[in-house]
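Researcher: Next sequence.
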Amino acid sequence: MGKKHLVMVRRDKTPVRLIVINTAIFVVLALAFCGIFMLAQGFNPVSIYAQMFAAAFGSFSGFTESIVTAIPLMLCGLGVSVAFKMNLNNIGAEGQYAMGALTATGFMLFGPSVPGPLQIPVMIIIATLTGAVWSLLAAIPRAFWNVSETIVTLMLNYVALLLLDYLCYGPWKAAGGLNLPYSAKIPKTAYLPTIFGSEINVGFIIAIVVAIFMYWFFKYTTTGYQISVIKHSITAAKYAGINVKKNIIIVMLISGALAGMTGAVQVCGVLHRLQPKLPNNAGFTAIVIAYLSKFNPIVVILVSIFFGGLSLGSYTVQTLGVPSQVAIMIQGSILIFVLAGEIFNRFKFKRVGEHETVNTIE
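Model: Next structure:
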């Protein structure tokens, strides 16, 4: 018998249990990595993490506030996940979110009068359609001329955010608003109702319904199956007669629509007005959430709550002198570590003989 050596070979199938365990391990490693930097700054990372967790999830009020913070992350995360399901990179959720908020608020402040019961649905519909149309600016060039949707959606973010700033600092700035760059408030009849006797608004229910619908859509519809085929092989999809161009546009429309909807939900449910930098990087954080969730819409909801709590906790520990940017550091570290750990989901160690043929990592 020849000598055996240790190599990494491709797994035929990765058990869900292994994915969960590996993800948990690498999240802990990411937290430990961030802890090194906290120690270097003279902070006790265990104490900092404990206080962040207590602030976000240690009380009913903290937990509800974490959910409120997570609602825009949920909707943007679901939107980004739709695109990634077909290997399309919608990096423009930030801009689609901003445009949805902008048009919905603008219609309510300057558009024709709408009866009270219809105000919330109208704002949500307008924001959803705006996000979808904004995404088309990237979807059409991608579908017909193979222009990178990554670059186009990224650039459109700056257009949307600069337009938002211009309106808030300029023509839409509220009179008598203590010189702050905010628009006037929308009517109280357009405020989203809260649930569970807390600050959580109906946007949370909307996000859950959307997640359930997306799960059903990808698992049980013909279009969902076609998207899966295109993801794995465009050549095979074309050979099977699947219209790839049409599906690119459908996927980007849905992705942009959900990001745009976020704008109306946030304005109606939390802010009740337009303000600069309104998305607050939710569109970019959604990319991290989508990857960590493996594009599973149900998992997106859970991961978003974790990130909402992380953001809330990071602001709480500022009283100890810890920079609020610690949340961004943790989010980025978690993404990098989990992506690095993905290799253990796809491959495993195996002892093989000198002349044994295996599907190795090379």
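Model: The chain has a mean pLDDT of 91. Residues 116-145 form the longest helix (30 residues).
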